[in-house]
Amino acid sequence: MTLSRRGFLGVAGAAFGAGTLHGGTILSAFAAPSTPNLPGGKEHRIVQLEAFQVPPRSVFVRIETDGGLVGWGEGSLEGRAATQVTAIEEYRRYLIGKNPFEIERHWQAMYRGDFYHGGPVLTSAISGIDQALWDLLGKALGQPVHQLLGGRARDRIKVYCGIGGGSPESAKESIQSALSRGFRAGKMGMPETAEILDGMEVIKSVYNQVKWLREAAPDDFDILIDFHGKLAPAMAISVIDAITELRPFFVEEPILPENVDALVRVAHAVKAPIATGERIYTKFEFRELLEKQAVAVVQPDCCHAGGITEVKKIAAMAEAYYVGVAPHNPLQALSTAACLQIDACSPNFLIQEQGNLGDGLLKEPFVVKDGYIEVPTGPGMGVEIDEERLAQLRAEWKDWETPRLWHKDGGVADW
User: Fold this and answer.
1) Residue 316: how many CB atoms within 10 A of its CB?
2) Any idea what the CATH number is for the domain that residue 173 is in?
3) Which of 228, 268, 304, 407 is catalytic?
4) Which of 4, 40, 146, 169, by CA, is between 20 and 30 Å from 199?
5) How many CA atoms lie within 13 A of 324 on its CB side?
6) Can 328 be counted among the known catalytic residues?
7) What is the pLDDT of residues 261-287, one digit of tens each?
8) DSSP string covering 199-227, please?
9) Structural domain total, the chain
């Protein structure tokens, strides 16, 4: 029998109502097949999922099972905390009652199960949940997440901090502060604003700030530059050309990420290594960046790009193009913990943004020594939260809004 499209939809609709189609089970939007739990262990089902704001601008995810396990993650989206709490908690409809250890199935269901895929809000929500599920699995097995992803590829993880300096004196102070805290690399963001084309004043200002930092730092201290997507392609080429002789470790987000061909133009016109990725989500968006060889370094964010599951895949994709991985991490300590698990097991890992080391939140904060953090060995994401301190932090929450910048003529500038 041949069915028209309308006829097929009618049969399919009836089948959905009955729960079968040609003998196969039709699942509701929030159902998944029942499968065995961990071998030899107690079965676990998700009984609670909550999300809440944590200063200064983060959203934490807490997932609990009926077996008493608790997994933590961070699904932040800076400046949109209330939105993220709602987006994360909407996934309760799917996750409550599920086996928490089927992480890949849940990632696919959360991402592909909805008609609308991707974007910063939904992918950040999935990221936080994914981290918490990996934390649960690691705790259930008594293993760090990186061990479950293939084991460590290194013993230490190189990290960098934020540095600055609008004068030779302040640049020297900033470098000395970084060295005293154990860092051997630092990143400076500049300029405050930039027009599509700017003159010598802006170029000279950028050059001098990099020069002062380079002069203040020993040769074994790497200096990274972040333009935060504030430059247009022609301006980016001019500025990077000016600072190339100072040998920046890499130049981050010289232009906004929406137009990959424009970034290719910049990357092929300059000699300094280009990095980007903090505003790119999932392997699907990183594909074009890699295929067109637009960067030397990708910077997926474990809180935005799809969590541990997806960032590990992005790192593997980058490896095939001889591209390094330096996860973006400007958020709270759970973001740092997730990044370190990826760093530990990714062969092409390059350097890690410091983020928050967990002082005042983790029972054992991360320690930087000689420019590195030791690979975490604890189960799950390798951290234990001080829940009493966390409750205090939650009470101190104040809504954080993304700064809005303006050009001298009153036009909107990129932040």
Assistant:
1) 14
2) 3.20.20.120
3) 228
4) 169
5) 14
6) yes
7) 999 999 999 999 999 999 999 999 999
8) -HHHHHHHHHHHHHHHHHS-TTSEEEEE-
9) 1
